[in-house]
Amino acid sequence: MRSLFISLVSEFYKSKKTLAFWAAILLPVIICGLISFGFYSGSEKVLALHYPPLLLWLRYIGAALGVMGVLILPFYVIFMAFSVNNIEHKNDTWKTLFAQPLNKFSIYTAKYLYAVVLIFICLLLFGGLTLAFGHLLQILIPKYSFNQYDPSFLLSKFYFKLFLSSLGILSIQFTLSLVWGDFLKPMGVGFIGTIMGIITGNVGWKYAYLIPYSHPSLVLNSSTAAKKLSNPADFEIFTQEIYTSLIYAGVLFVLGYFIVTRKSIK
Amino acid sequence: MSDYAIETVGLNFNFGNQTIVRDLSLQVPKGSIYGFLGPNGAGKTTTIKLLLNLLRSPADQVFIFGKEINLNRIACLKKMGALVEQPAIYGHLTGKENLINRCMLLGIPRIKANEMLELVGLTEAANKKSAKYSLGMKQRLGIALALVSDPELLLLDEPTNGLDPNGIIEIRNLMIELSTKHHKTILVSSHLLAEIERTATHVGIINKGRLLFQGTISELHLLSKPMLEIEVNQSNQAAEFLSKAGFENVSHTDKTITLPFISSKHSGEINTLLIENGFTVSSLYQQRKDLENLFLDITQQN
After folding, report:
1. What ipTM does the predicted assembly reach?
2. A50/B contact by beta carbon, under 8 A
3. Which CATH number fits domain B4-222: 3.40.50.300, 3.30.390.60, 3.40.50.11260, 3.40.1160.10?
């Protein structure tokens, strides 16, 4: 446990100057900021539609979720999984890392966990900033009705499900980035996967849940469907695609360990 | 308790069908500077990786301070610091940050980073991105990283690779200081004997995965048999004459003839014999084969 903790702290320390780390913070700030700016500058048009508080929130949340979930999340995961491993590939530090008096499995787990934590931070910020900026909009434009509905439970559920749905992609990309030191190969596979995921997820293909890249799209589609209900937070978290995502994550996590222990010795 | 910092017992290692290390029995005494010599591709780096458990050795073949490495990986690694091949440095971090990161991993107070920077003379470059370091500076940072945990045993794989003469001297002096003042055991690999001849107390010579020689530097010197070199006119005829007179192993170049040195008296007799037979001897001296040639002989013969 101690090995795992200090390896995790070291991962944060090592990557504090990398884009992968800062992107986890900047992406939510920029996207939520832009959407809020849109709601601020185009407030008259939005107000003219006379949304009830719940629908206003849903439109506002949906704007961020739509952009984020379908495109940015998969690409961020692809890039971040690459970056976390590339730190070691680029500097040829795998063998030094494994020559430290620490448990090898803990070193690897810390790396994987670090990637998971980054996605978590990114999505937590998305949820948190959506809520915060919504209330800020209310202060700036008092005619909005953001203060008449509390979306925090709904937001937490959406983003938590999105987080779980991203773990399958993360594990595939993490494993690919362990095998290949260069950016193009995992990026290429990830790009094709993401396009496939969007298409299969949106057309509602029966077996789309088997492709991890479609999981965020499936989650978003199911949440869009939920919007029609009187209680939008009434959707299941652990659906078929989430189980599939977690199974992918579990299997590939173990496989990754065997790859990395063999790779580090070259 | 074992007297050896490192002991391998008939160590064998294969990559697929290819045997990289054969029946290797290293014995590195505590407190020594052990020069691990061999040409490129002889199996030095593989051996070092086995010693660090980066490659898994067969059971009961590698012992670090008397402990079997596979069973005591973490305990063994705690006593070791290593620089394997290129120094493993995170280029986007400064020298100091690299050391702080290592301190974190080893559970050592961060203040130790400054001490290490001073030891390897990098205090002024502490806050410079290490990707911008010169090769020598990177190498020194690599050594600082290996030393940060104050290990009893230091494994340095070709630490002077690519360094200029000043850099080589600095590393050499650092090794001597670590051994004499801080009583570290150092295993340093190289493909050049001359490079570690001046620092090593013990030498192991490896080629094609086999240990060809192991012992102290003086034992290695003893292996080199002294030769008698005679500068003489008509060296061709002189050599032929000596061979006919019953002297063995006589070789010659344009100006000199060389034969095994036996004693001063014997050398005098040869001199007299040559002069009496009309040759002009301009000089006659005992020559010891230098270690570099001896090393070449040992590695080439096997």
Report:
1. 0.86
2. no
3. 3.40.50.300
